[in-house]
Amino acid sequence: MKRFEIITEADARVLEPGETVVLADRGQITPLAADTLRQRRITVLRNDQVDATHDQLPPVAEIRRIAIASDHTGVTLKAALVAALRTRGLAVDDLGTTGTEAVDYPDTAAAVARSVARREADAGIVIDGSGIGSAIAANKVNGIRAAVCHDVTTARYARAHNGANVLSLGSTLVSVDDAMAVVETWLGTAMHEPRYIRRLAKLHRLEEQAKP
Prior knowledge:
alpha/beta
């Protein structure tokens, strides 16, 4: 985020609408600049309002290693995705399952979520019948933002707006081709907008408040 000692009308005019900037503790905003900032919906934070981990919150933009797991319903889809991702030169950690014997989605989703939270993988993919259960399970791990996506539009929003670092897919709801399109869009979308990153900081604070 851009940082200022003083924000003038000229500064306010060149900032992007909706942007978030930081003002020094004793910094000043000129009266004309204040009106322009309001009109352009620019958020001004003081230093003490900026979370120490603010710049570390966005998901990894250049993904090189992916952790992936599925329950028994997603084995076929997972195998296809693993093969396709490795063909693209990405490192893929297949955390199971590999057979048709029933396994519980909280276990497979947690394995991926912990790998991403520990930064052993840059991003994660979890799969079950609908994708919903795995997303709920993954989101129980601090630092994880898992999103269910069934088309390229939600995949793009999940990354660019919500900073999702785990993608959840429903094996009974998407074909292999559609799932691969979702994965490619999700992996190829970065998060840059300061206003969205500011919202991640609020999610992070909610996580911190929930700790015993």
